[in-house]
């Protein structure tokens, strides 16, 4: 209740903040500081530019109502934010955690962050959950001497160090979510772009780099993580006005904005200037009429960025949408390759009053697609209702007709459909050559869908896996259609890549990357292969979890795999895990617009892995995949199948048949250590094992609501890996306090002076400008 301040001495910030090592549950429900009087947090920091990140989690406490949370936050002479009733008008408390990121320059080594409740409202209060202060290299965003194009104006614009910035959007275009620890040392988060994309999905696609991303003296490595430049969204089309990709990004009116576009030429076919020329439009005005990435970067695989200033200084009561479009060049894709964009950052610039305060302090209004007309939607819904009534009245007759023609109709439509723009068309003769006429000697496996062969393409230089559908399998048709639909749109390090397909002669053949080390199950039991080390098993589980997490969260529509099992986790020659076999997968509800959290569908999957709640209620959710993955985790730990074949000698031990049930039984009876793979006994750090088993058990909860998300599973598996690494490092040299270590298996671990490893550093040898980030002084 008192006016006061908190002095944070320099010594308290000699190590990396532990925030990123906190459990996800804590991150979602952090503690809160409430101030009824003005209060200042003082940080002693080095001079120079800083990130200031303020974490807010609006709450509901007795005696405190969010309508009274009216306050401002200031740093030096800048007003960073000012809340009002509009800040909370559309706020959903269950999904309102907000991080506000600002950039400001510190001249005297002292940073004061002041929270001031509104003096005009009785009982007003301020609150904050966390404050981060992170140093950044000079000239990262503000370069005083550089003139920037002002969109729609002939005169240039200069950003002075006297300006403060607020990050509005930071997108990994065409890529996945990049968490803070995987940034280049500044703990920025990069989110996918799909929810801001307004053009039809058929007009754009995702491309993955086939060249190595290189560092350049022109663009320092810390500008953006390599993941941003390793993928891009591209425009699909012939160069007409419809061949574009457009994003709409909400911004506050009354300000100028810095728009940074990240580019990287990621095709190995790009050999010179003029290979890819396209147009860039911002706010419906030309930003680049002849964008040529190779010209800017002087090579393929070399990142480059372009900065622009956009004027939204006219005040209105509503938020504006900043539009960004990339269009193919006028010469069509036969002349120029399609337009691409790799990343995007948008910053608000402080106004003439040194303020960044907008009307919507926490979160932003839900995005709505301006191309969708309400009237058209209403007519469509009515038509669907009338159609459903007619369909139900004719159902008995229709069913007989459908049963007779559906199979042929589906096959014909599938064969005539256009191939995905992201996979190659193979002739049947090419496939025969690749598999030596489908030789049994190259057979890798078989199932209800057909057979899988090992093959080689491009003159034998590339090994592939070729899946050939059984022409008589109706199941195979549906599964192959689903795989083409999904895999032609998915690109992820931990999801198997679809290379191409063949539809000639009524064949349905898919061509994938070859996985040299086969399935995960092959290395756990039955195949008499050398057992995997605990560390390798953890890395494989982490890779599979990353793939599943991407499926669940990588776009506005979640994807539920529905057949997660050890035989559907493949391992390449470097033991990188990749999730495969999407034949049973289902598209989940739109996470942005639909309140439903499940898909009602008939039960499909594999015995031993089936979610019991899904089996009973036919309601499929992402948590169904979590349950199946929990079974896989115990397969990895125990080196035994999910279901044992029952023999006469086992009739008295029927409780051992189902792995999930047997694991829970042994845990409750205190015999859990007896079912662990004997090879692993004495080779696992106890803390690592406990972290692993705790999250694996939670995955097997009877109800989906009791299970963690795949993000939480991934976090815990990474913690188990880090705990094992810490134990191994201690056993090897018994010495902590090292700034950087590189483990034998190639993963970099940053270790602070307390010996807590922090995973995900992109640059294991940062330069002098990062001396405060390895051991940040003002954090």
UniProtKB/TrEMBL annotation:
Q: Name one Pfam family in it.
A: PK_Tyr_Ser-Thr
Where is this chain's protein located in or outside the cell?
Membrane
Protein kinase domain spans which residues? 438-722
What SUPFAM superfamilies is this protein classified in? Protein kinase-like (PK-like) (SSF56112)
Q: Which CDD domains match?
A: STKc_IRAK
Q: How does it sit in the membrane?
A: Single-pass type I membrane protein
- GO BP annotation list: response to metal ion
Q: Where are the transmembrane segments?
A: none
Which UniProt keywords are given for this protein, alphabetically ordered? ATP-binding, Glycoprotein, Kinase, Membrane, Nucleotide-binding, Serine/threonine-protein kinase, Signal, Transferase, Transmembrane, Transmembrane helix
The residues that hold ATP are: 467
Tell me a GO cellular component.
Answer: plasma membrane
What name does the UniProt record give this protein? Protein kinase domain-containing protein
UniProt organism field? Gossypium klotzschianum
């Amino acid at each position: 209740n008192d006016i006061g301040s908190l002095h944070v001495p320099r010594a308290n910030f000699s190590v990396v903040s532990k925030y990123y090592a906190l459990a996800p549950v804590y991150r979602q429900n952090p503690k809160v500081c409430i101030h009824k009087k003005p209060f200042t947090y003082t940080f002693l920091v080095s001079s120079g530019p800083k990130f200031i990140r303020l974490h807010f989690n609006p709450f509901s406490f007795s005696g405190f109502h969010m309508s009274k949370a009216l306050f401002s936050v200031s740093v030096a002479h800048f007003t960073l934010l000012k809340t009002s009733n509009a800040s909370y008008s559309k706020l959903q408390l269950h999904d309102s955690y907000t991080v506000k990121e600002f950039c400001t320059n510190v001249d005297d080594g002292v940073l004061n962050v002041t929270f001031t409740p509104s003096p005009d409202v009785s009982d007003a209060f301020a609150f904050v959950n966390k404050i981060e202060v992170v140093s950044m290299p000079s000239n990262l965003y503000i370069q005083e001497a550089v003139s920037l194009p002002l969109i729609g104006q002939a005169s240039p614009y200069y950003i002075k160090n006297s300006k403060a910035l607020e990050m509005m959007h930071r997108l990994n275009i065409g890529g996945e979510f990049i968490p803070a620890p995987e940034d280049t040392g500044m703990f920025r988060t990069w989110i996918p772009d799909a929810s801001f994309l307004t053009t039809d999905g058929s007009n754009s696609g995702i491309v993955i780099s086939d060249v190595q991303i290189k560092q350049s003296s022109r663009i320092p490595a810390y500008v953006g993580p390599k993941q941003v430049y390793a993928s891009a969204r591209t425009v699909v089309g012939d160069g007409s006005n419809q061949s574009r990709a457009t994003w709409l990004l909400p911004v506050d009116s009354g300000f100028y904005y810095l728009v940074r576009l990240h580019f990287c030429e990621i095709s190995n076919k790009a050999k010179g200037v003029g290979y890819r020329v396209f147009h860039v439009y911002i706010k419906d005005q030309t930003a680049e009429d002849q964008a040529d990435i190779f010209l800017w970067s002087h090579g393929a695989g070399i990142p480059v960025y372009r900065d622009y200033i956009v004027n939204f200084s006219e005040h209105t009561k509503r938020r504006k949408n900043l539009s960004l479009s990339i269009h193919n060049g006028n010469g069509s894709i036969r002349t120029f390759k399609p337009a691409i964009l790799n990343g995007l950052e948008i910053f608000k610039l402080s106004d003439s009053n040194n303020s960044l305060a907008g009307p919507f302090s926490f979160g932003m209004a839900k995005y709505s697609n301006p191309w969708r007309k309400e009237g058209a939607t209403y007519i469509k819904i009515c038509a669907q209702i009338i159609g459903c009534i007619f369909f139900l009245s004719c159902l008995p007759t229709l069913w007989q007709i459908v049963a007779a023609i559906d199979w042929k109709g589906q096959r014909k439509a599938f064969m005539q459909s256009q191939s995905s723009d992201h996979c190659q068309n193979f002739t049947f003769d090419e496939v025969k050559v690749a598999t030596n006429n489908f030789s049994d000697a190259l057979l890798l496996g078989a199932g209800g869908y057909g057979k899988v062969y090992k093959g080689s393409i491009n003159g034998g230089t590339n090994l592939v896996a070729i899946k050939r559908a059984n022409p008589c399998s109706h199941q195979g048709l549906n599964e192959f259609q689903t795989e083409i639909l999904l895999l032609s749109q998915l690109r992820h390090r931990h999801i198997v890549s679809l290379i191409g397909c063949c539809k000639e002669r009524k064949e349905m053949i898919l061509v994938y990357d070859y996985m040299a080390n086969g399935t995960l199950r092959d290395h756990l039991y039955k195949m008499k292969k050398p057992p995997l080390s605990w560390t390798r098993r953890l890395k494989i589980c982490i890779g599979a979890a990353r793939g599943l997490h991407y499926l669940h969260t990588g776009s506005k529509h979640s994807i539920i795999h529905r057949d997660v099992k050890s035989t559907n986790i493949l391992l390449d020659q470097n033991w990188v895990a990749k999730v495969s076999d999407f034949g049973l997968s289902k598209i989940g509800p739109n996470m942005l617009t639909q309140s439903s959290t499940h898909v009602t569908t008939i039960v499909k999957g594999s015995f031993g892995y089936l979610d019991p709640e899904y089996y009973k209620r036919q309601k499929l959710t992402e948590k169904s995949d979590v349950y199946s993955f929990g079974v896989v985790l115990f397969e990895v730990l125990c080196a035994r199948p999910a279901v044992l074949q029952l023999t006469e000698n086992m009739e008295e031990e029927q409780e051992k048949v189902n792995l999930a049930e047997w694991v829970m039984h042994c845990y409750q009876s205190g015999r859990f250590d007896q079912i662990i793979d004997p090879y692993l006994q004495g080779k696992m750090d106890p803390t690592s094992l406990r972290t692993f088993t705790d999250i694996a058990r939670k995955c097997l909860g009877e109800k989906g609501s009791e299970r963690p998300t795949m993000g939480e599973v991934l976090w815990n598996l990474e913690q188990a890996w880090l705990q094992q690494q810490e134990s191994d490092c201690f056993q090897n040299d018994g010495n902590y306090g090292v700034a950087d270590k590189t483990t034998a298996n190639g993963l970099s671990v940053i270790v602070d002076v307390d010996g807590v490893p922090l995973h995900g550093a992109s640059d294991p040898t940062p330069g002098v400008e990062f001396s405060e980030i390895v051991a940040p002084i003002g954090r």
